[in-house]
Specification:
Elements lengths: L4 E6 L3 H12 L4 E4 L15 E2 L9 H25 L10 E5 L2 H16 L9 E4 H7 L9 E5 L3 E2 L2 H14 L3 E3 L4 E7 L2 E6 L2 E10 L5 H6 L7 E13 L11 E3 L4 E4 L14 H14 L8 E12 L5 E4 L6 E5 L7 H13 L3 H4 L15
Parallel strand pairs: 1-2, 1-11, 2-8, 11-17
Antiparallel strand pairs: 3-7, 4-6, 5-6, 9-10, 10-11, 12-14, 12-15, 13-14, 16-17
Helix pairs in contact: 1-5, 1-8, 2-5, 2-8
The structure holds flavin-adenine dinucleotide (FAD).
């Protein structure tokens, strides 16, 4: 039987669309199967950081993967701009993790030195700075900022433009986007796969499951145990301000159009999208202590969203052992890793080399018999 497509990618969020773009660019006939505009998507609710300094404790390969992604960002930004005329507002001045107590500085310093002490780790460049050194780079910090970690590898973009840019690049590379194609079931058929969707069946030689928090349900149908769970985060956005924050920090950053984003809580077990004023108040209070100039600024928008969180926080990329040709891709840093997904992972999927080339990210690490 001839398949409708070479590859069907399930999930039109940042992860699925980046992979679908990379596959279409490589000459594959690609369908991107997605839900409709009302779907829950982490991809339209995130903080836009391209972040390296917190990644890789427990898995040095993830630190290298993130660092490589950040290094690819300039090339990727140029490629998307050339194809779509969309400016991703990428900057990479380095990033700060601000601390409001000595204990926070100590915890930060310990976390980073543990990352760097791991065998096989390419040392992460970073500095632990005191108040005065931070103020030289961020003159608007308040007196309560005790110190910070600074890593020159970190950056930021406009992730809504990234989302738009990826979809446009996919379309211009010959890809077929199918909205209202929520995949209900997935099965092997005639050496390929059949995805049964709310709008009919689609056949493809290979399938990539990048359906965010629905990936575990779909993966189980083709022998993949993608251990992801929703983890709630919340964000506040202020009215536009004059440019004052020229470096991203992990919880406060100024977007290219001037608004200031404050985020982002980590909440387990609540799968709703309702914002919580108690959590928002704490986030706003910490931001005001970091930057007192925010005290009298209007908040114009808030939201809650669900991250796609893997069991150990590191990405999952794998091919099914029982159903070769079925792949999975999940991570909680889909902004940071977009160039990796489009430029590195997609060709590995096209060539069926994921398990061989990226063994650290496989699902077998979650087997109970695996000891770390
Ligand atoms: C508050 C917050 C802040 C964040 N900040 C950052 C940050 O600063 N930097 C960073 O790198 N990352 C950040 N992230 C994470 C980043 O947003 C995610 O890693 C990324 O969006 C995940 O993309 P995804 O495509 O896997 O999932 P989603 O965006 O959730 O997309 C999943 C897609 O699959 C579709 N889908 C689901 N089920 C099916 C089905 N059965 N059939 C067809 N389609 C289906 C959905 O409709 C959706 O389009 C943040 C996330 C949150 C929530």
């Amino acid at each position: 039987m001839t398949s409708d497509y070479d590859i069907a990618v399930i999930g039109g969020g940042l992860v699925g669309t980046a992979i679908a773009y990379g596959l279409a660019k490589a000459g594959q006939r690609v369908a991107l199967l997605d839900e409709d505009d009302r779907a829950r998507r982490a991809s339209v609710a995130n903080f836009s950081l391209i972040w390296v300094q917190t990644k890789g404790l427990g898995m040095p390969e993830y630190a290298d993967w993130s660092r490589g992604a950040a290094d690819l960002w300039p090339q990727f930004r140029d490629e998307i701009a050339a194809l779509t005329e969309i400016d991703l507002a990428f900057t990479r001045p380095g990033g700060f993790h601000l601390c409001l107590s000595d204990a926070e500085v100590e915890a930060r310093s310990s976390h980073l030195s543990r990352i760097n002490a791991q065998p096989g780790m390419t040392p992460l460049p970073y500095e632990i700075l005191g108040h005065n050194a931070v103020r030289e780079m961020l003159p608007d910090i308040g007196p309560e900022v005790v110190g910070a970690s600074y890593c020159p590898l970190d950056g930021q973009c406009n992730s809504m433009r990234l989302f738009w840019g990826l979809h446009t690049a996919f379309y211009r590379s010959g890809g077929h986007y199918r909205s209202r194609h929520r995949v209900q079931s997935l099965a092997a058929r005639d050496g390929g796969f059949i995805a049964t969707t709310e709008s009919g069946a689609i056949s493809a030689g290979k399938v990539v499951i990048a359906a965010g928090n629905d990936s575990r349900r779909l993966g189980a149908m083709v022998g993949i145990d993608a251990q992801v769970r929703p983890q709630r985060g919340q964000v506040l956005v202020t009215e536009r301000m004059k440019p004052f924050l020229h470096y991203p920090t992990i919880t406060v950053r100024q977007a290219d159009e001037g608004s200031v984003m404050l985020g982002d809580a980590i909440e387990e077990g609540d799968t709703s999208l309702a914002v919580g004023t108690d959590v928002l108040a704490k986030m706003a209070d910490r931001a005001r202590r970091m930057f007192p100039g925010l005290a009298n600024v209007n908040v114009v928008r808030t939201w809650a969203a669900q991250r796609v969180m893997t069991r150990d926080g590191c990405p999952i990329y794998d091919e099914s052992r029982s159903h070769p040709g079925a792949f999975v891709a999940n991570c909680h840093s889909g902004v940071t890793l977009a160039p990796r997904h489009a430029l590195t992972l997609a060709p590995l999927i096209a060539g069926s080399h994921v398990a061989a080339e990226l063994p650290a990210f496989g699902t077998e690490r979650f087997d109970v018999s695996t000891v770390y």
